[in-house]
């Protein structure tokens, strides 16, 4: 039995990479997928491509994700295993899906510059900076998953990302399903 009470039939792990926008989720996930040959699933792209949303929020300048549709879309792939899920939230995904939950964290001055370069302004910029300051996503991950599978990783520089990918690749290669 796995830690979360489900029996795992998959042979390869599932990893969730989460964090505030601008912390390097997609960069890290892409590099990790290349290093491990796991499937990179960018939930934001999936939401847009498959219309897994309930419309556009002009104030937040983002789609209103339909969490049920996203989970339905991913269910079979997640049961199969071998996935890296890249998304800014985590509390709606079933606990049984993940073997490692990675929360990327970035220094606020670095994050501010990254988000500003992306065109974030006003409340969208300040809300994301506050989210990082108060470690909202780390707290969400710790409340949603067994604490021993949640890891916070610094993601300020290319060197940090390289170190994180190496560490996660080593973890993925040594992973064995719980029996």
TrEMBL record:
Region LID: start-end pairs: 117-127
Assembly, per entry: Interacts with small ribosomal subunit protein uS11. Not a structural component of 43S pre-ribosomes, but transiently interacts with them by binding to uS11.
Stretches that traverse the bilayer: none
Enzyme class, UniProt record, top EC level: transferase
Annotated ATP binding sites: 22, 24-27, 118
EC number assigned by the record: 2.7.4.3
Keyword ATP-binding (UniProt): yes
Biological process annotations from GO: ribosomal small subunit biogenesis; rRNA processing
GO molecular function: AMP kinase activity; ATP binding; ATP hydrolysis activity
Official protein name in the record: Adenylate kinase isoenzyme 6 homolog
Organism from which the protein derives: Juglans regia (English walnut)
Pfam families assigned: AAA_18 (PF13238)
PANTHER family: ADENYLATE KINASE ISOENZYME 6 (PTHR12595:SF0), POS9-ACTIVATING FACTOR FAP7-RELATED (PTHR12595)
Compartments, as annotated in UniProt: Cytoplasm; Nucleus
Catalytic activity: AMP + ATP = 2 ADP; ATP + H2O = ADP + phosphate + H(+)
Purpose of the protein: Broad-specificity nucleoside monophosphate (NMP) kinase that catalyzes the reversible transfer of the terminal phosphate group between nucleoside triphosphates and monophosphates. Has also ATPase activity. Involved in the late cytoplasmic maturation steps of the 40S ribosomal particles, specifically 18S rRNA maturation. While NMP activity is not required for ribosome maturation, ATPase activity is. Associates transiently with small ribosomal subunit protein uS11. ATP hydrolysis breaks the interaction with uS11.
Cross-referenced InterPro entries: Adenyl_kinase_AK6, P-loop_NTPase
Renumbered residue ranges of the record's region NMPbind: 42-65
Annotated keywords: ATP-binding, Cytoplasm, Kinase, Nucleotide-binding, Nucleus, Ribosome biogenesis, rRNA processing, Transferase
